[in-house]
Write a structure and sequence with these properties.
The protein is an alpha+beta fold and 237 residues long. The chain has 2 helices and 11 strands. The strands form 3 sheets. Strands 5-6-3-9-10 form a 5-stranded antiparallel sheet, with no helix packed on it. Strands 1-2-7-4 form a 4-stranded antiparallel sheet, with no helix packed on it. Keywords: Membrane, Signal, Transmembrane, Transmembrane helix.
């Protein structure tokens, strides 16, 4: 029985290690968080940008508003050590505020450029935007471009349907659903962790049963050749 349990432990350990090694290097995704109201209201969108240990420092982060989304005002929160540049695009046809004021331009992109070392490997930083008014959509995808000190750029633009785990998923938020958890990326890592945890739980139970059985056998060793002897009555006739 011990040899069987050892084999099971080895199989789970090797499977868990292989699964973890098989996760792509971009597992530390750029994620988006949302806090605010529904369409037409104001919301805060936070982009969490990690710098993985095997990459150079991150020196530029650019988020683009999709062409079919019109957001009149975007106010970025200042980030120490970064310059901010907001670009706009013309609207055709123009849109109007609630008070009838004509609006000919909406935000097309926001770019943060490091004035210092940027995001160092193994660290992350948050980039917060106040958007108003929020578009009349259920979910908002924000293509994001992460540029490193060596000039390389990772484009976080890949669609991520439910159950998928692309290498560079586009950061996405659900409008009107305030949350403290990211709404894009990471499903592959979560599944690996869950199944690995379940495997170790099974191993722990099996080893526990084996230990109890062994302790019981040690406490009551069997005597070879011993047979049960019927009790003799001590009553006299």
């Amino acid at each position: 029985m011990l040899k069987t349990l050892v084999r099971i432990v080895g199989i789970f350990l090797l499977s868990g290690a292989a699964a973890l090694l098989g996760i792509p290097s971009a597992a530390a995704h750029v994620n988006a968080y949302f806090d605010g109201g529904g369409p037409g209201e104001t919301g805060l969108i936070t982009l969490r940008v990690p710098a993985e240990s095997d990459n150079p420092p991150t020196v530029k982060v650019e988020v683009r508003i999709p062409d079919d989304v019109q957001i009149r005002t975007v106010r970025p929160q200042p980030v120490a050590g970064w310059n901010i540049d907001i670009k706009k695009k013309k609207t055709d046809p123009p849109i109007y505020r609630d008070d009838g004021t004509r609006v000919d331009e909406v935000v097309s992109s926001v770019t943060w450029t490091a004035t210092g070392p940027g995001i160092m490997p193994g660290q992350f930083d948050d980039f917060v935007l106040e958007a108003n008014p929020l578009p009349d959509v259920q979910s908002l995808s924000l293509p994001t471009y992460q540029t490193f000190a060596d000039g390389k750029t990772d484009a976080w633009t890949e669609p991520a349907p439910e159950g998928s785990d692309p290498e560079f998923p586009v950061p996405t938020v659900t409008i009107g659903a305030s949350s403290n958890t990211a709404t894009s990326g990471g499903s592959g890592m979560t599944s690996v962790i869950a199944w690995t945890a379940l495997g170790f739980a099974v191993i722990a139970v099996a080893l526990g049963i084996f230990s109890i059985d062994r302790a019981r056998r040690s406490a009551h060793p069997a005597v070879p050749g011993a047979e049960a002897t019927p009790e003799r009555s001590t009553a006299t006739e």
